[in-house]
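I hope you will forgive my troubling you with a question about protein structure. You will find the record immediately after this paragraph.
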Amino acid sequence: MDLNWALDHLYQYPWLPVATGLLIVFVGLIAIQRLLASGSDFCPEDVPNTVILYQFQRGPYAPSFSPYCLKLETYLRMANIPYQNVHGMKKSSKGKIPWIRYNGVSKADSQFCIDFLNKKFDVDLNFRLDRANQAVARAFSKLLEESLTWYMIIERWLYNQDKPWMSEAGIPRLVRWFIGRKVRTAAYYQGMGRHTREELHDVMRKDIEALSAFLGSKKFLMGYQPSEVDCIAFSLITQLTVNMSGSIADVFITEKHPELLDYCDRMRRRFWPDWEECTTRGGKTKTTK
């Protein structure tokens, strides 16, 4: 095949370059989808009485770019449960990350993992709370996971794909675009995706103000000792600030509610003394843990 032959066929079939380009994009999207949907058929050999935690690769400025991965690993540390990390894209039977295996049993969804481990290890991080405060803690957990988390997801994947911290997280541009498409659809059906961006910012501010007002002068959300709800509160505020530096939420929290940053510092000092070892420091180094 010489250049003249190629040019001759190009003139005869002007649609050929377009079709070839579309085919390349299609194959690329299929490859990305398979990567993101890679299943849970492979598991390392179980270590007796040790939790195998499947989660994404380490994050740039926090141990995970996912609030749910950070939530679950923080819980394991708070509960003093032995665990091993498996970093990658292996998804659970529910198609979600993180998930765990323990003595051959798999569990999906971060909260179901926590409930399962509470029973297995006889853990109760809420033992100091009476029934009324347990109800309040559950209500705040749902506010964080069903409202503020969706704000973070939409803001990150639909409006901030080109921010430096997205590339520092090691996420290729095409993957960001693909995830953004999935997020747009999921957020629309969840409901938050039907709001304007300004309406979303208003939701974020009210959620943050409620969290701050309830924290007050306490060291932790439910009192002077941490409880289970602190796992998600700490993880989510960390995502909005540390892993989304300069975002609208980060600026609002930093300027209006620095007490939440102090709260995260207390959690980090107590349960993450190896924090720096568990980050890529902006994608510049490999983690050691």
The two ends are 53 Å apart (CA to CA). The beta strands are 51-55, 83-87, 99-102, 105-108. Residues 36 and 89 are 6 Å apart (CA to CA). The chain has eleven helices and four strands.
